[in-house]
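Notebook entry, structure prediction.
Reason for the run: the old model in the group folder had no record of what sequence produced it. Starting over properly, with the input documented here first.
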Amino acid sequence: MKKLHLIAAAVLVLGVAAVAYASGEAAHGAEAAHHGLNWKDFLFRVVNFVLVFGVIAKLAGKKIVGFFRGRTQQIENQLSDLDARKADAAKRLADIEASISNLAAEKAAIEQEYRRQGEALRDSIVAAAEAKAVQIKAQAATAAEAEARVAVQQIRAELAESVVSAAAAMLEKKLSAKDQEKLVDEYLTKVVFN
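New structure, fully documented this time:
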């Protein structure tokens, strides 16, 4: 492989030298036609170039080859990195497109879930209010019954007082002092013997 590079470089040098010589020949015109090709000068130039090229290749050849190999490796790494980035970007794009296409369905699902939660909250509030209303009605009925009992007892007490007062007034009118003593004695006798 190294020899192939060396041969290609030599051919390139000879070709460049021939072109340079031919262009110089055309510039001198007729004078160059009389003199012909100066092969000795041409040979010295080629040898000089080959020697300079050989010295450079010997001294810096490995570094130059290493530089180009390193650069080649770096370019290959960059290309593989770019391919990986491209694949990652394509995957992310596909994910984003999928999420965008599912956005309407997700929106509908979220709205439905919120609607369901709202209805459940409404139902729980209504049930709690109905239970509280039943409790308040029961408390009102109990309070009304208690007030009615108190009122009935109060009316009975007032009625009993008025009956006792009326009976006492009537007895005072009808009974004399002697009858009163007789009644007291009878009741005392009953109480003592019982």
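Summary: Helices lie at 2-28, 30-35, 39-101, 103-174, 177-193.
The old model has been moved to the deprecated folder.
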